[in-house]
Each structure stands twice: as structure tokens, then as C-alpha cells.
Amino acid sequence: MSKVLKEKTTKGLFWNFIDKFGQQIFNIVSGIILARILSPDDYGLTGSLAVFIALSNVLIDSGFGRALINKKGVTAQEYSTVFYFNVAVGVIIYLVLFVLAPYIAAFYKDERILDVTRIYFIVIIINSFSVIQNTLLAREFRFREAT
Q1: Measured between alpha carbons, how far is residue 120 from residues 25, 34, 39, 92, 132 in Å?
Q2: Over the stretch 25-73, which tens digit does the pLDDT of each residue have?
Q3: What is the Cα–Cα distance from 33 to 47, expressed in whole angstroms?
Q4: Which of 71, 76, 132, 140 is deepest in the core (most CB within 10 A)?
Q5: Contact 63/89 with Cβ under 8 angstroms?
Q6: Which of 100, 99, 88, 83 is nearest to 124 (CA)?
């Protein structure tokens, strides 16, 4: 293994660790702040919506980001196709969850969550825009810029 590749790998792993550690710290701090502001019932309701966000993020990428990282000789057209696919899937998932919002509110037996879900789930569309950019940065070992 060449020295340059070792350096890139070491730097990539370091910045990836910093990214994940920073995300965890941010999640803990924001969770504590929300827990202090919201009542336990409200905090539980908003936390239960995070499951939908996590599942949506998995569906949005559908493994294409990882495939582009592993593939040799990726063209701009392939990046573009995956980008538009991710955004389209993100919009479709948002629209489905928007329509299902009354059923989600009925499941949790709390009508207050109806508007919250419709606004909170906009983050699904926003996340769909970042998948291909994170793929590009990971492919080029530029983890520092992904944080």
C-alpha cells in the first residue's frame, strides 16, 4: 500500500470518526434541550417520528450511493441519475407520509401531531438532496468537508 493511500485512509477515518462523534454529541445536547422544553408526552411523540425519518433515509439511498462509491469509472450521468432518483424517492416518501399523517395521529391518539408530522417530514426531502454529495466526498476521501 502506498504511503499516499495510507495517509488518505488515515485522514478519512479520523474525519469520519470526528463526524460521527460530533453528530452523537449534537444529538445528545439537542435531545437534552428538547427534553427540558417539552413535556414527556410531547417529547415521546416527536421522538416516535424519528423512526419514520430513519426508515425514509434508508429507502431514499436504496444502496445506490454505496454502489457509486465502489464502482470504478463512474460517469457524471450516473451521478446525476442517482441524484434525481434520490430526490424523486424523497418527494414520493414525503407525499405518502403527508397523506398518512392523519393515520399516524390516530395511531398515537393525539391530533396535535398531525401538523407536526407534515412539517417535520420536510426534512426527508432535504436529506434526499445530500446523499449524492456525501457519496462524492466519501469516494474522494474528503471526509473533513462532509462534517
Answers
A1: 21, 15, 18, 15, 22
A2: 887 888 788 888 888 888 888 888 888 888 888 888 788 878 887 778 8
A3: 13
A4: 132
A5: no
A6: 88
